[in-house]
Amino acid sequence: MNMNQDAYTSKRDFERTQEPQGNTLKKEGEPPIFVIQKHDASTLHYDFRLEIGGTLKSWAVPKGPSNDPSVKRMAIPTEDHPMDYAWFEGTIPQGEYGGGTVMIWDKGSFHNLKTDKEGNPLSLEESYAQGTVEVFLEGRKLQGGFAMIKMKSGRMAGNWLLTKMKDEYANPNYDPVKTETLSASSGRTMEEIAQHGSAQEGST
Ligand code: MN
After folding, report:
1. What average pLDDT is seen over the chain?
2. CA of 134 to the centre of ligand 1 (A)
3. I need a labelling partner for 11 at 20 to 30 A (CA). Which of 167, 169, 170, 183 fits?
4. Angle, alpha carbons 197-49-3 (nearest 5°)
């Protein structure tokens, strides 16, 4: 059990919610994974989660990701989630923490782009600790470089900004949040997930 997940566990009643608690071990050499979950809770938002150090580092992004490098999206850090959360799609009962519908909006693997000033690779753990994460996403909906930068001063200190990095995958004219409305896992709409709850991956 990753100690960083204590906050996750303490916020939830697992007699009531079907949210996962496990950290299923991955095969050696498999790349790290990311997931973006569209979450219709008290306010609709997109939960961006990156596998770093054996857990899913998590941010709530109210407006979701943009493919336009000139757009900065607020990303509010939330508690570390267990690895198995990447496969969670369904409903959280009303009255429970995060009550509402959860869609796997995008998922895939990623690789670390971050280097130090000399151009040497910087580990994900180090770059997260320093507050500048740069990753290349290989999702169903999002591809290419994305940067997250932690704000260190001002009114928003402690929050992060998510931006599309400038590369061949950047496209200011394609708004993935507006265009892509179906689950990357099951193909369902938010309404279908809300009605039927959890489904096995790939089923409807
Ligand atoms: Mn959420």
Report:
1. 93
2. 22
3. 183
4. 100
